Amino acid sequence: MSHSLATVRRLTTVAAVVAALAAVAAVAAPAAAQSAAAGVPNRETALEIRKQFTTDLDTLQSKFLALAEAIPAEKYSWRPAAGVRSIGEAFMHVASEFYVFTPMAYGAQRSPVIPRGRENFQKFEQMSTKPDVLKHLREGFAYTKQQLAAIPADSLVGPRQIFGGQHTIVETSLTMSADLHEHLGQLIAYARMNGVKPPWSN
Predict the structure, then answer these.
(1) Do the Cβ atoms of 62 and 138 come closer than 8 Å?
(2) Is 160 helix (H, G, I), strand (E, B) or coil?
(3) Residue 198 falls inside a structural domain
(4) What is residue 153's DSSP assignment?
(5) Cα torsion 17, 18, 20, 21: sign
(6) Alpha helices in the chain, H assignment, sequence order
(7) CA dihedral for 143, 180, 92, 194, sign (positive or negative)
(8) Does 18 score more than 90 pLDDT?
(9) Looking at the domain assignment, is residue 199 inside a domain?
(10) How far are the Cα atoms of 60, 120, 138, 186, 198 from residue 87, in angstroms, in the given order?
């Protein structure tokens, strides 16, 4: 199980990184080549990064929802081993990232739905029935899309103090995209282990 899950994680992470880097390369103007090479996007590049990042979020969300719908409610408590998140908890972890870390990655406000503190994240993830998952995947995603869209373009340029250091949205977009793709790979593996084929898979 660990080998197949690791393979899925590597493939999805690589795909996310390649897509994001391709977007940056496609829009970087020659005059901004030195700045882009240094990893600091200009305004035009920053807007394109946000556009590509939100497009990737749309794709991820459609797959998370499709998979959540396909997995029977009685399987939501299944977990691969003791002390590991169940299927329902893994989905709720994704929802928590929509509420908190995805908007924070762009300098936006986290949602008050999950108060600060590790215990509050754990409490949130434990609300892991199928209706809970579907509700919070939708509402968390709507929150993060609203927050990202509201950020002024000039605020996207240059590094800022995020996640304990100075980072640009190139870095934070790659970090969030890779993490969400990793969780999608994890949930695909869990679904298949329970006899559920991803709805988009041929």
Answers:
(1) no
(2) strand
(3) no
(4) G
(5) positive
(6) 2-27, 33-37, 43-70, 87-99, 101-104, 118-125, 130-150, 169-193
(7) positive
(8) no
(9) no
(10) 17, 19, 17, 9, 14
Q: What is the mean pLDDT of residues 114-133?
A: 97
Q: What is the pLDDT of residues 39-98, one digit of tens each?
A: 678 999 999 999 999 999 999 999 999 999 999 999 999 999 999 999 999 999 999 999
The CATH number of the domain holding residue 183 is 1.20.120.450
Residue 28 pLDDT greater than 90, yes or no:
no
- Count: domains in the chain: 1
Residue 83 amino acid letter: G
Domain that holds residue 113: 2-193
81: tokens are: 């081993």
H-helix or E-strand spanning residue 167: strand 165-167
Rg (CA), the chain: 18
The answer to whether residue 201 sits within a structural domain is no
Domain contains 200: no
- Please state, in angstroms and rounded to a whole number, the distance separating the CA atoms of residues 190 and 105: 27
